[in-house]
Amino acid sequence: IITLVAMWLSQRSPKRENITGASNQDGDRYATIFESANEGIVVLDADGVVTEINPAACRLFDTQPDDTVGTPATDLGLLSHTEIRLLPNLHRQETPQPVVRQLGERVISTIVSPLRAGEGKRRRAGSVWLLRDVTEIVRMDETRNEFISVVSHELRTPMTAIKGFTDLILDGDAGRVSDQQRELLAIVQANADRLVDLVNDMLDISRIESGRIQLDQTAVDLAKAIQSEIASLRPMLDAKQQHIQTELDADVPPIYADAARLSQILTNLLANASKYTPEEGWITIRTELLDSHVAVSVSDTGIGIPVEALPHLFTKFYRVEQPAVREAGGTGLGLAITRLLVERHGGRITIASRQGVGTTVRFTLPVARRAEIIGDHAGEPFVILVATADPRDRRAWSQGLESIPTRPVYPRSQTVRAIVGEAELHQPSVIVIRPQASRPGLYDLLTDLDAVPELAETPIVVVGGPTQTDWVTDRQIVMLRGDAGPDHVVSTISDLLPHGEVAPRSLGRVLLGITDDTRGA
Rounded distance, CA 40 to CA 166, Å? Predict the structure, then answer.
């Protein structure tokens, strides 16, 4: 739709001011699409002024075209004053950028694409906004996750009892068990185990997707973690007389991971490799250092995966349609959980496979840079100046940074002047900003910070701002999505801290966190 709108706008004469000006056949067709589209469409010029709005968008904003065209997007509620100032950078983007934003009680999914004009379409003339009301979808998703969580919890209690008493009976605690009874109870036990696994996986994926799990990330010795998982899975491997070998890069430093979740990732991948590899097959684990990340691959000589199935492997409950897969069993959630956990750690996971030859699953995890900071840090703690009206930001970020020697400081005022004054006083190592949509403080704050020579090289993290980094200064700026969780924010902050640098005893090294958004981190 965005492409069609852009084509229609590019074909119109500059003298034609409204949609009725389209005179050619293509223009009429594009105009009809514009008017009848179920999605809201808003066109802004380079200054953020509304030049076109279709009926669907009018319904979303409860307005009329005559009342809207020619007015700033801030009056419509589509953009904040801060975002208006950053529009030139948005117009430089080459690909549409999807964003989910709150509009009153509604949740709107927006896709923004630059509008080009002039010879060779090189000049950015504005932007096209495609809007879709996803409020009900979000609510249904939240309801579904809550339902899964409640049902899983309710199933866990009776299943624990069934499994426990079945084990007791099989152990002979309730009297002698005949061979026939033992055979039947073994079936009950196996199915109870499968249901418990399913319940646990459903609870896990519900917690991860809803953001209710917090990673306890520390420096982890990857080689030891791998050897530990191999030892715990040895009975499974021995039962099929499978061989396992490791090719571990000796230069790999500790990784920054949640040890329990890393164990879960490795267990899922190794168990899958064993499950789908025939007897006397081979499983190989390799590690490799890639700059700031470590790559781990688990390869097997198993049945392999059809090419057409590869894109669906991380989909929840997806099972490859093969007899060997059906015989092996499983919940169809293991790989979905593994991917979510890897991504929560800031890594990526991929799968390569050839049917009848084998499969390789490869994932990356970050190097434990934060541990290096702690190991080399012998001075006063890093002082954290957190300027926020939301106690949830203070709590989440402070808790996340507890593994670094820190001392949080909270200024009394959220004004630009007060924040810049605190920054000048404490000389921050990193500045973190969560801009507030209703106030034009971000641009002013960045401008004032640039005017302080001592802060000229201080890196900045913007949470919930634009997705490019070249719009204010040449300094290092990292843009994070507005829904970035505290783990992601803290990890980014840690990467920007001066590794191995000791905080001066007079002032300390300072981390300045600025956010006046009323949302939680």
Answer: 58
The answer to the question of residue 372 being in a domain is no
Range of the domain at 45: 2-133
Question: What HEC string does 377-403 produce?
Answer: CCCCCEEEEEEECCHHHHHHHHHHCCC
d(CA 128, CA 137): 23
**Do the domain assignments include residue 169?**
yes
Cβ pair 502, 379 in contact under 8 A: yes
CATH code, domain carrying 251: 3.30.565.10
Contact status, residue 337 vs residue 201, Cβ threshold 8 Å: yes
Average pLDDT, the chain: 75
Measured in whole angstroms, the distance separating CA 53 from the mean position of its chain's CA atoms is 32
The verdict on pTM exceeding 0.85 is no
Tokens of 400: 């996340």
How high is the pLDDT of residue 370? Answer: 45
Q: Which of 157, 254, 169, 242 is nearest to 199 (CA)?
A: 157
Closest CA to 247 of 280, 283, 291: 283
Best CA proximity match to 237, nearest among 302, 282, 296, 194: 282
Q: What is the DSSP string of 401-462?
A: TTTS-EEEE--S--SHHHHHHHHHHH-EEEEEEE--TTS-HHHHHHHHHHT-GGGTT--EEE
Amino acid (one-letter) located at 490:
V
And the tokens for 308? 């057409």
Closest CA to 469 of 436, 453, 492, 485: 492
Q: pLDDT class for 375, splitting at 50, 70, 90? A: very low
CA 416 and chain centroid, separation: 30
Instruction: Let me know whether 357 and 388 are in one domain.
Output: no
In sequence order, the β-bridge partners of residue 45 are: 126
Question: 146 CB contacts (<8 Å, ≥6 apart)?
Answer: none
φ and ψ at residue 38, rounded to 5 degrees: -70, -25
List pLDDT tens digits, range 240-273. Answer: 999 999 999 887 888 888 888 999 999 999 998 9
Residue-wise pLDDT for 46-74, tens only, equals 888 898 898 988 988 888 988 889 988 88
CA distance 113 to 93: 8
